[in-house]
Amino acid sequence: MSYHEQNNINIIVLYHSRHGTTQQLARHIARGVASIPQCQATLRTVPEIDSGRAVTPSDPIIDIQELKACHGLAVGSPVWFGNMSAAMKHFWDQTTSLWVSGNLIDKPACVFTSSSSPHGGQETTLQSMTLPLFHHGMLVMGIPYSEPNLHSSFKGGTPYGASSVSKEGHANLDKQVAELAFSQGQRLARVAVALQLSTLSQP
């Protein structure tokens, strides 16, 4: 799924989701990206590695060449024992060619997550997803406390990135959580635009 395909700054929103909450966060981030002029959001997911679980993904599987060409990146995973999911980690383990060539250096990035309990390890999961981004030389950003919802939400939201606390099968995200994800997408897109303009203005 893509938004505003006529625009030339492409932000990939890459996620892995088991029960749908992380996918919902991804969609709100994508809407935030697409609300910024010149930007489009491309939703992508990663392959499952659990061979006993048959899943038809709602969005296309990410291709390394897509990642290479993007102008910015949002990465999301549910909490798995305080870490990113095995499927997301497996994907990043296959990106050595991009690291060697430096294709992601100086591109903006952010992370997001979801868990079924408020103490499930959201912050450590968010931090685990930043590690490969730092190694790729990306410019990792969070959510500033100038966002009012960050002060008052009890259903998710951290300075490290958007998050949600919801039980399996919960139909809709909390309103404040959705707004934080939207704002995070906007911030990522604005930075991507500024970086592109800065690059184009260089002699």
Q: Strand portion, in percent?
A: 15-25%
Q: Tell how many strands the DSSP assignment holds.
A: 6
- For the report, how would you describe the main beta sheet? 6 strands, parallel
Low-confidence stretches: 1-6
Number of domains: 1
Distance between the termini: 36 Å
Q: Name the helix and strand elements from N-terminus to C-terminus, one letter apiece.
A: EHEHEHHEHEHEH
Mean pLDDT: 91
Decide which structural class fits the backbone. Answer: alpha/beta
The shape is globular
**Count of alpha/pi helices:** 7
Which percent range fits the helix content? 25-40%
CATH architecture: 3-Layer(aba) Sandwich
The CATH topology is given as: Rossmann fold
In a few lines, what is going on in this structure?
With 203 residues, the chain is of the alpha/beta class.
Features:
203 residues; alpha/beta; Rossmann fold; 7 helices; 38% helix; 17% strand; globular; disordered N terminus
Describe the protein.
The structure is a single chain. By secondary structure, the chain is an alpha/beta fold. The chain has a single domain (9-201), classed as 3-Layer(aba) Sandwich (Rossmann fold). Helix content is 38%, strand content 17%. It contains 7 helices and 6 strands, in the order βαβαβααβαβαβα. Strands 1, 2, 3, 4, 5 and 6 form a 6-stranded parallel sheet that branches. The longest helix is centred in the C-terminal third of the chain and has 27 residues, at 175-201. The chain is globular. Mean pLDDT is 91; it is low at 1-6. GO terms for molecular function: electron transfer activity; FMN binding; NAD(P)H dehydrogenase (quinone) activity. This is NAD(P)H:quinone oxidoreductase. Residues 11-189 form the Flavodoxin-like domain. One of its GO terms (cellular component) is membrane. It comes from Vibrio casei.
